[in-house]
Amino acid sequence: MGYFKCEDFTCHSVGVFEGKYRFFQQQNLLTISRINVCKRVSFIKHSFVEEKTIFEKIISRDIPADIVFENDIAVVIRDINPQAPVHVLIIPKKRIDRIEMAQDGDAELLGKLLIMAKDFARSYNLTGFRLVVNNGQQAGETVPHLHIHLLSGRSMAWPPG
Ligand code: 5GP
After folding, report:
1. In total, how many domains does the chain have?
2. Residue 105 is part of which domain span?
3. Confidence check: pLDDT of 10 > 60
4. What span, in angstroms and rounded, lies between the C-alpha atoms of 75 and 45?
C-alpha cells in the first residue's frame, strides 16, 4: 500500500493504492480502478512493508494499552487522552485505514463493531453515549486505522466542534 499522485493530463488524482488497485476521491465519488490506468503515476510514499499503526502495535501487544475487551475481530481500549469520563475506542483487528476505504465485504465487520459498541455501553450501564468515527485529518482523524470512539459520562453539545 502507498500513496500516489497521477499527472495524467485529464486525471490529476491523488490517492491510495493497494496492490494493483487505486482508490481516490474524484467529484465526491470513490473511484476504484487498476493502478496501470494512469500512465504517469508518481508514488509519494511507497512501502511494501507497511509500517504498523499505533493500534496494530496495541493489538499485537508491541505497546501497552488498557484493553477492556477483546474478541476475534476487535479490541476495545481506553483512550489515552479521554474526552469524557468514559472514552473507549473500538478497533477492528483488520486494518481499514478509514471508513472511506471500507468495501462491501467489510459490511459484516462494520456491523459487528456497532454491536460491540452497544454491548459495551450496556455492560457499563451507559444510558447516553456518543459514537464517533473521524474520517480524514479535517475531521480530526489522527490514527489511520478505522476505529469508533465511544464517549459517555457527561452531557454533550450538538453540533460537535
Ligand atoms: P482519531 O483522532 O484518529 O479519531 O482518534 C485517535 C484516538 O486514539 C485519539 O483519541 C487518541 O487520544 C487515541 N490514541 C492515540 N494514541 C494512543 C495510544 O497509544 N493509546 C491509546 N490508548 N489511545 C491512543
Report:
1. 2
2. 54-152
3. no
4. 29
Q: List, in sequence order, the alpha helices (H) in 30-93.
A: 54-59
Q: Choose the residue to mutate in 57, 88, 143, 145 for probing ligand 1, maximizing ligand atoms within 8 Å of C-beta.
A: 143
Q: Supply the residues annotated as catalytic.
A: 147
- Give the binding-site residues of ligand 1, using a 6 Å CB cut-off: 54, 65, 77-81, 89, 134, 140-143
The chain-wide mean pLDDT, for the chain, equals 82
Q: 10: which 3 cell numbers?
A: 485529464
Residue 136 lies inside a defined structural domain of this protein: yes
Q: How confident is the model at residue 51 (pLDDT cuts 50, 70, 90)?
A: confident
| Ligand 1 center to 147 CA (angstroms) | 9
Flag whether pLDDT at 21 surpasses 80: no
d(CA 124, CA 86): 10
